[in-house]
Description:
The structure holds two protein chains of two kinds. By secondary structure, chain A is α+β, with helices and mostly antiparallel strands. Chain A has 23 helices and 24 strands. In chain A, strands 4, 5, 6, 7, 8, 9, 10 and 11 form an eight-stranded mixed beta sheet that branches. In chain A, strands 16-17-22-19-21-20 form a six-stranded mixed beta barrel. In chain A, strands 3-13-1-14 form a four-stranded antiparallel beta sheet. Chain B has a domain at 17-110 and 175-253: P-loop containing nucleotide triphosphate hydrolases (Rossmann fold, 3-Layer(aba) Sandwich), CATH 3.40.50.300. In chain B, 34% of the residues lie in helices and 25% in strands. In chain B, helix 5 (134-143) runs antiparallel to helix 6 (159-172) and helix 6 (159-172) runs parallel beside helix 7 (189-206). At the A-B interface, helix 13, helix 20 and helix 23 of A face helix 2, strand 6 and helix 4 of B.
Amino acid sequence: xTAVALKGLAARKLRALSTILAVLLGxxxxxxxYILTDTINRSFDDIFTTALEGTxxxxxxxxxVSQEGSEPPPFSEALLARVxxxxxxxxxxxxxxxxxRITDAKGEPLxxxxxxxxxxxxxxxxxxxxxxxxxxAPRTASExxxxxxxxxxxxxxxxxxxxxxxxxxxxxxxxxxxxxxxxTSTGGSSTVTxxxxxxQRIAGKAGELDQIAIAAADGxxxxxxxxxxxxxxxxxxxxxxxxxxxxxxxxxxxxxxxFLRTALLVFAGIALVVGGFQIFNTFSITVAQRVRxxxxxxxxxxxxxxxxxxxxxxxxxxxxxxxxxxLLAGFGFAAGINALxxxxxxxxxxxGLVFETRTLIVSLALGIGVTLVAAVxxxxxATRVSPMAALLAAALPERRRSGRVLLAVATLLGLxxxxxxxAGLFGGGSAGQAAGLMGAGSxxxxxxxxxxxxxxxxxxxxxxGWPLERLRGLTGRLARENAMRKPGRTAVTSxxxxxxxxxxxxxxxxxxxxxxxIASAIDTIFQNDITVQSTDGFSPIPSTIARDxxxxxxxxxxxxxxxxxxxxxDAAGQQRVAGVxxxxxxxxxxxxxxxxxxxxxxxLTPSAALVDDGYAESNGIAVGDTxxxxxxTGERPRFEVIxxxxxxxxxxxxxxxxxxxxxxxxxxxxxxxxxxxxxxGADAAAVEQRVKRLVDDRYPSAEALDQEELKRSQEQQIxxxxxxxxxxxxxxVVVSIFGIVNTLALSIHERTRELGMLRAVGMTRRQVRRMIxxxxxxxxxxxxxxxxxxxxxxxxxxxxPLADEGFELAxxxxxxxxxxxxAALAGVVAxxxxxxxxxxxxxxxxLSYE
Amino acid sequence: xxxxxxxxxxxxxxAGAIVAATDLRRRYGEGEAAVDALDGVTTAFERGGxxxxxxxxxxxxxxxxxxxxxxxxxxxxxxxxxxVELAGLDDGKLTQLRRDKLGFVFQxxxxxxxxxxxxxxxxxxxxxxxxxxxEWLEQLISIVGLGDRRDHRPAELSGGQQQRVAVARxxxxxxxxxxxxEPTGNLDSRSSEEVLELLRRSxxxxxxxxxxxxxxxxxxxxxxxxxxxxxxxxxxDGAAGDEGDVLELMKAVG
Lengths: 850, 254
């Protein structure tokens, strides 16, 4: 029986190949994701281990409140003296490690926009982890060393100048050395090495340190020393052995990457589900076509179990081949995704590709599992073939499942999915639970739609086929009829495309809504004319910008907004806190007070706060209450709530406080946005030019934008992410196109004689191709129409609770039409091969074909 | 057209015929395994005649029909159809020729299951993008006796009804020649008679030319003329006569 399965597979090489592809692509993304993230983790592990090689114990600020990517606040330099007095400390040295922007001599930023750039302080032996390839470490306040790979990329040599912007205007340094960290690439991130005092000054950390590196005296173990050092430290600062610190940093990176991994695996899962649909369809059709073969096997004495095993063995082989090839392709994907990120400006470090056993096991299990599960139902149908089938040209017993049962199951599934989706949206569980519920709910709705789609095939084919029939007469007519001939088959084929397109449409509609909401929020709340922000759109910028811009001729009101994070009581997670200067912000920003008015701003003392009304409502906070916050510096200030605001698009966060309080209690003195108004009577265009020139010249890490440019810059950020999602969803769409190819090829195979007759009575090859192409287009359009409807539905549902945040749904009709057109085009592409084969059929052979 | 209607002609004289084969050869395979399905056949069929081609299995009767209809290409000799030499035509031209000048009735699978009876009848015209002549179509539908079933799909028709639709389809474009390949091979005797009667009427009433391949003497008796092939050559060419004559003739050449 094994031989039968093997021969069966070999006899249908082409079909086997395209079925294998259905498994291959999903598995490739799974394997690629694991390989990519494992590789990134490994390379960061290498970087941290190398960096801490000469360090026995390291002192760093404790992360009291997670700040979403931002560094924890530094600690006082005075701690160094205290640490040095600890017995067993051979040597201790303070260090700075701070995000900055590095530029060339003209102030043009080096490297790519998103790659992080750091200023580090030069260390002495044994702590210095950087090796100098050329030159030496900086010794004076005007000297700097640059990492070798970035110097090379930017064409900077010893003796050239580089600029650094941290907390203050651009400063130029002379390059005296080129260095590197171990053997690893730092993947696009660049470092500039400065003397400690200069690094402190540039980073705005005068009298402060980011870390203290400690070497143990002979006979003192790192663990022992770590305990002794920890004893003299305040609670906001921690001591770790070098190894612990490297492990913690690696773990942090790994958990940051966890999001990337999960996101990629979700897309891989989508591709696998779509692939499963295709495998189900292919096996259903091939089983139907092999009825006589199975009948013959039964006549010759094969048991039902043996027939089942023949089909399942074939599935196993396809799954195994697909998974194995997918694993190989995964290596390609890992490299490809890396390139994709690089193209979007997110450069990730990597050494050689890391291949864990887990990657092998998960990939094989998924590939084989999906194939077998998808093939079980068709295989069971094969066992119902009676031995008589060999003698009669009998059709496969039709599925017994009654329409009513199917309808009930689909309805239940759909309603259950809807309930889960809504529970996720409004249930108020944790973010993870909500996302899980929403994902499961959406999946259930998609499956329900797939189950129902055979019923929808006829009306939808009529809609999609109508223009073709109108324009193309007979070929359009036949294409439509052929698409409706086996509604179940067409439904499964188009459902695969439906899933991919539903998600594409969902993110498209959602992103359009986001863009629209942000644009309208900018219109309503930003009362200023010019906004200064980081070139990346979200990082803090030097606080000197606000002061400098205020001095520009023709500038009126200048207000700034800074951000930090705080924990509230015992609640999990952290809340975003905005800091404003109540004396200046009113002129450039509209708070949209719910309780209180613009006059309330005057009462915003360092011990007062405004609260987002949504947050206040869900946490039972009222005006007059006092809230206690835990800040990143470990302070526990209390604030009296003096008003509530309607925070459009969650721009400000949960609390708004005075910048004086933010400096003293949160240790944050950098602005994120500087909002600039033009003085009444001044020439707005000229003022804008002057502000832009000032920012360009002195602060290359920032940019000044007018309102329209600001909207565009926000849009670009969203669209960048959107393109990434499109690229990943394209995989599922490609798999479903292979599905159309397969179904089409199999259906044509069944209709060989019919095609022969059509050719005999005068249908030209071109007409045959056209007929098949239209059939594919109709199938694709059915999926596209269903997918668009579901995608819009998801977007409408999911955006409901966001309406309070000022989210407005937008329907990008033009984009949706383009998506439909692309789906039709996908049909055309899918039909190329099958149509060519059909048109080249030998008429006589086709006529005598059995 | 200048051809003269002639009486049944013996092989060789191809002038004035609507379709004529000259020294037609068809070899399948190569070398030792080569088989000559047709080994030099010269014959012609005049306009308005009903001819039957018979012969034992492997005699080349189907091959001859396929070559005459431009469905297959000869390895030697020539076919002229309504004044056109088929040898030089490419696939597109041959397709067009089949569409415009020929009608076909096959043994099985004549109809598209997705189209109604009427749509199947006008299929050759639809393919050509032409409108049917309404009067002629109505006449055809009434002749084949499908007046009340014209909107039914093939699955809702009996085998005989399906084959009558196929005949109507072959006639709808008023082709130069209708080729029928075992048109009754799959039918019971009553349905067979109806189909043969139809073909006969098309010759008698509309001057249609029909060439039919069959292995049933009963069917051949409906024809005016009988060509019998044996081993790829013409073994007999003459008047068909009645069923008894045909059987006798077959015995004589067999």
